[in-house]
Amino acid sequence: MQPLRCSDCMAQVLVKKNSWEHTEVQWDQQARQQCHEFGSGAVKPRRPGAPLPTCPSMVATITRAAAEGLIDVVDDAPVPAPMFQ
Predict the structure, then answer these.
(1) What is the DSSP letter of 83?
(2) What's the CA dihedral at 33, 37, 42, 43 to 10 degrees?
(3) Contact 2, 26 (CB under 8 A)
(4) What's phi and psi for 50, nearest 5 deg?
(5) Measured between alpha carbons, how far is residue 74 from residues 1, 25, 35 in Å?
(6) 26-69, pLDDT tens digit by residue?
(7) In angstroms, rounded to a whole number, what is the distance separating the alpha carbons of residues 10 and 44?
(8) How would you write 31-74 as a 3-class SS string?
(9) Cα distance between residue 59 and residue 82, in whole Å
(10) How far is CA 6 from each of CA 19, 40, 50, 56, rounded to the nearest angstrom?
């Protein structure tokens, strides 16, 4: 996992970019509070088992950092085309 700061709110998370399609992000309490999407009660209550919300600014920061080589992409191979029609 690599530390990365959001370019919008400067919240720092740990990121592992397994492939271009799969990313792991670990948020600590401080990062959640600092994030514009998660902090100060911004996240609405959700049903148990519902998907966790995402932060578009953090997604954009991670994508940009990976494209610029600032964070590693473990499996950089392109996804194969679908096998069905």
Answers:
(1) S
(2) -100
(3) no
(4) -70, 150
(5) 11, 14, 26
(6) 999 999 889 988 876 666 677 777 766 789 999 999 999 999 99
(7) 22
(8) HHHHCCCCCCCCCCCCCCCCCCCCCHHHHHHHHHHHHCCCCCEE
(9) 25
(10) 20, 17, 24, 10
Residue 68, both tokens: 């610029």
pTM for this entry: 0.79
- 14, with CB counted inside 10 A (0-12, 13-18, 19+), is middle
Segment (H or E) for 30 = helix 29-34
